[in-house]
Amino acid sequence: MKEETKQEEPTGRTEDYLIGQLISCEKCHLCNTDCPICDYRITQGPFGINRSIYYSLKWNQFSKELRDLVYSCTTCGKCVATCKNVSRALPLVDIFEKAREFLFVEKMIGPMPDQRDVIKNIFRKGNPWGYPPRERTKWAEGLDIKFASKDNKVEVLYYVGCTSSYDAEGQKIAKSLSMILKRAGVSFGILEKEQSSGSEAKRMGETGLFEHLVEGNLEMFEEAGIDHMVTGDPHDFYSLSREYPKRGNELRVEHSTQFLNSLIDKGRLRLSSKIEKKVTYHDPCYLGRRGEVFEEPRNLIKKIPGITFVEMEKCKENSDCCGMGGGRMWMEIPKGLVSSQAIAERRVKQALDTSAEVLLTACPFCKITLTDAVKAMKVEESIQVMDITELIAMAL
Amino acid sequence: MIRSSEALYQGLKDIVGEDHVSTDLLERINYADTSLPYDVEETDLPDVVIHPGNTKEIVEVLKYANQYQVPVITYGSGTSLIFGTKPKHQGITISTRRLDSLQIEEDYQWFESGAGVTIARVNTELEKLGYCLPINVGSRMQATIGGAVSVNTVGHLMDYIYGKPVSNVLGLEVVLPTGEVIQTGSKTIRRATGWDLGRIFVGAEGILGVITRIRMAFYPKPETADTVAFFNTAEEIGDAFALMFKKKLPPILDGEFVSEKCCKMGYEAYGLDFPKGALAITQSMGRTKEEAFKNAKEMEEFFKSVGATESFVLEDPKVRAQVWGVRENAMRWGKEKGLKGYLAIEVNPALPFLTRAITELNHITEGRNDLIGETEAYLYGHIGASSLHCLFAFPYSWPIEKMKQVVREIWRVEKELNIKYDGVGGDWGQLPYRVPFYREKYGEVSYEIIKKMKQLFDPKNILNRGNLEGEE
Q: Which of A128, A392, B11, B347 is the most exposed place for a label (fewest CB within 10 A)?
């Protein structure tokens, strides 16, 4: 190089970040490979989304079609892995989330119409549905679960998350995990005033609300003297462990599959009931590819007496998405784009190919979505969807 | 002549259905953008993008386009590295991706597929039966079989193993620009003797007709074992490969190389402690793993005998992944240096000139006063197939006009080197900018014959208009 290339100083402006990243796209199209939202149109998928953002910024034209594309991404991270392996290692999910923030904050055409109320609900009630905050811990009634506080110190905080607090399928996970922790003699508690971690707000581009929730939650954790927490929701796990700022004492965040593994390894938890079932495991995107937790859930499954474990063809880093991540749980998919049900049915079909009787996962979103797909496909008699925690509870 | 998005939408929605016609700006941008280092401009966009689902619909679309003289570009997956897929005269872009049927006829020993099926999908299905597709392009996960046949590429594979697609295509279904459908070839594994009209379309880069269906031979999937060899210089690798053929070693499936500068960056990026210099990788074949390994060992011995500082068979999967990572990730190193980082060329020197061409390309930026002298060049490629890629990287802060100028200079260099070293190039669907090469290499009479053929098949010049004219 004859003259030294001068790098532009970062301006801190979102559009400059986006242009700065996207200008270096190879345009090889390989990111579209295996993307859950890709169909026959190249526009649907990370290549099309990235080019659409780039040219919308360059030509200063921001349309509803751009918004629909940007919000159609499940943020599963498969394209990021592909780009890293074969091309320019663009942080595509980060780019898409920044673009959502830009469309929301700067251009006011985000989020998706259905997501507006969801964001309001998170702000006002601390959960996406707008359920009363006082009902958040209703699932725990009669289970003799403590509320962690400065006067009621616990070894571990169980951060339940919105879905496992309010959704009937999710509550089964919360109840199972609580039962297991009690059996293991773990001193644990939940927060009386728990609220959203902000993960879903961030996915929808509402980073201001995310930061507001982070502040509130960190204050609450600090006040209750929490230094170790466990959650069964990979979305919260990802935000709490990777997106929350580090402050003062290190806050150790574990997913329930990691914590339960360590309890068994330390001899604090024993699985004594035999479960003779053939099972397979679906890696939740925010636990696996994004959270880099692949082995602990598998190790945990294999510790259940009598279990036969089989992998799906697409597993671990190459696992397919269930379709509900990235804020898609809270929106109608616009006409012409790939539906979440189609994505989930594809994944269930992969599970059926293994002839497993149980499709295990470790995420309330995945559980709900895959269960709906099993019902829609009318294959309830062939396969059942469960969270690992529920199976562990059966094996106690 | 109809030339507006709205008018074309109205004319085409009844043919392919309104869900499969798009005039949306973003859709039109996505189907016009290519891997050229500068942005598409509004005049590059097609007026409309359509996604027909079968041959009948394409027939009607082409009759319509022919009647109203609307330019048509056929689009597979857009992985052509240059701008064959960019409309030069707007009009209609036809995506073939919904032509996605695939039948493998093991009893006949061929498969038939729609043009929009990806190479990866064909290969995955063939592998389940123990066969392989005789095409292996870097973009295989997205590239379509129709695109590969249209440009007649085998990608990384050695031509002498399976031949080019023109040798393996047994039959084609083609829609002519005037709307007639022709079926070519045979259903036997013996290629048609004498005139086989299908061969005219293979490698024609879409200027004579729209290939909708392909019947192609496949082969038993060989077992493979890889050998890596480290040399002080890329030139020494050139000498080794030129000699390899004369030594009559067991044929290899693939032979790759990475020059010194690329290796240095790759090793640093991955933190590898490999010997300094350049590296070569070969993929040996066998009916069994043992046979493949034995052949790979023979390559190792050969490399050592011709001056490799180190050579071994890649048995450890981790080391194998590292070595291939260095080769396959050559494309991203420009970004890590803060550069826009690409325009790649292909030079295919005749074997006696292999080392000289490597030497020239390895020092291509030195002592130059033109814009190429301001770029950083990275040399790598499929040396087994005598295919040298040189990637020129330059800052993305350059003005567009400067980028366009350097692109023209780079193409001129590619043309000059291919002429000088008896090469061909062109595996990437590069007709628009290769016209000057073609005219110089094969002469005006040949070029005129192709133009007359184009006129015969496509009297109103609707298909890929501008590509044969050499328009950027």
A: B11
Interface of B with A (CB under 8 A): 19, 22, 24-27, 29-31, 33-35, 39-40, 51, 77-79, 95, 97-98, 100, 116, 120, 139, 141-142, 328-329, 331-332, 335, 337-342, 373-376, 395-397
What does the pLDDT look like over A253-289, one tens digit per residue? 999 999 999 999 999 999 999 999 999 999 999 999 9
pLDDT at position A4 is: 41
Chain B contact set for A2 (CB, 8 A): 373-374
Task: Name which CATH class applies to A278-394.
Answer: alpha beta
Query: Could you tell me the fold of the domain covering A114-265?
Result: Rossmann fold (3.40.50)
Instruction: With H, G, I as helix, E, B as strand and everything else as coil, classify residue B356.
Output: helix
The residue assigned the tokens 């496949």 is B218
- Whole-number Cα distances in Å, B327 to A87, B301, B320: 12, 22, 11
Residue A323 — very low, low, confident or very high, per pLDDT cuts 50/70/90?
A: very high
pTM over 0.90: yes
Query: For B50, phi and psi rounded to 5 degrees?
Result: -125, 155
Q: Domains in chain B, please, with CATH? A: 1-221+429-472 (3.30.465.10), 223-331 (3.30.70.2190), 338-420 (3.30.70)
The domain A14-110 is placed in CATH, from the list 1.10.1060, 3.30.1490, 1.10.10, 3.30.70, at: 1.10.1060
Domain ranges of chain A: 14-110, 114-265, 278-394
Query: Is residue B1 scored above 70 in pLDDT?
Result: no
Report the complex ipTM: 0.93
Q: Would you tell me how many other CB atoms lie within 10 Å of the CB of residue B19?
A: 10
- Residues in A closer than 8 angstroms to B30, CB to CB, are 42-43, 47-48, 51-52
